[in-house]
Design brief:
By secondary structure, the chain is of the alpha/beta class. The protein has nine helices and eight strands. The protein has an eight-stranded parallel barrel with strand order 1-2-3-4-5-6-7-8, surrounded by seven helices.
Length: about 240
């Protein structure tokens, strides 16, 4: 397995917690995300995934864990939105990110850069490893060939052509396909909702597992329990 950056070794076999909250959440903003990062570290997380310079900087002040930074920005005419330009990548690194995650689906990127070109520039100028968020086996192979240091299942089910997935189950098939097809670490991200699923991912060859909503989204967690109540009342 190819591992060019020593910091990647710190991820092996552990839990990455995604500390994110959108504008609709009462937890939106650096103050809360910094606190969330601190609590994730207290609980045993080995790294954090954080979106945007302000939240990354807040998490950096509160924790010594490696930060996998992203910088989401939507551009008109482009489906990709996760760290899709060098400028967005630089903002994340300048704020304190130790690694970068970006769209690795191979879809067009704003500004005209290709995925290999963008990864090369990030390596050369920002000196951090790159995790490519993919939705299918072929994308993972292409992203690894483009220079990605890690591939992740983040986009599974979010592209029109990717395999349909259930809301609370990770794409175990994609994990196995990627592990068998690429010579870089594979991270599972998306729809991991139980400790048992996390352990299964690791047993299937995942280098690490990233969990967000099941840990850091109180509204979603509450809704799952409320749904269970209603299901019981209706006999489901």
């Amino acid at each position: 397995m190819q591992i060019a950056y020593p910091i990647i070794h710190r991820l092996k076999g552990g839990l990455i917690v995604s500390c994110q909250a959108g504008p609709e959440s009462a937890l939106h903003g650096p103050l809360f995300m910094g606190a969330m990062a601190c609590e994730a570290e207290r609980g045993g997380a080995i790294a954090l995934r954080v979106d945007g310079p302000a939240d990354i900087a807040a998490a950096r002040k509160m924790t010594s864990l490696p930060i996998l930074g992203i910088n989401k920005r939507k551009f008109e005419g482009y489906a990709s939105y996760i760290t899709v330009t060098f400028e967005l990548a630089k903002e994340a690194v300048d704020a304190g990110a130790d690694l970068l995650a970006m769209d690795g689906t191979g879809r067009p990127l704003p500004g005209g850069m290709t995925l290999p070109q963008l990864i090369e520039r990030i390596h050369d100028e920002l000196h951090v490893p790159v995790m490519a968020d993919v939705s299918a086996r072929e994308e993972g192979i292409a992203a690894a060939a483009a220079g990605a240091d890690i591939v992740a299942t983040t986009m599974a089910g979010y592209t029109p052509y990717s395999r349909k997935v259930t809301p609370y189950t990770p794409d175990f098939d994609l994990l196995q396909e990627l592990v068998a097809s690429v010579d870089v670490p594979v991270v599972v991200e998306g729809r991991v909702n139980t400790p048992g699923q996390l352990v299964r991912c690791l047993n299937l060859g995942a280098y690490a597992v990233c969990i967000g909503g099941a840990i850091t989204n109180p509204a979603s967690i509450t809704a799952r329990f409320v749904t269970a109540i209603h299901g019981q009342q209706t006999g489901e």
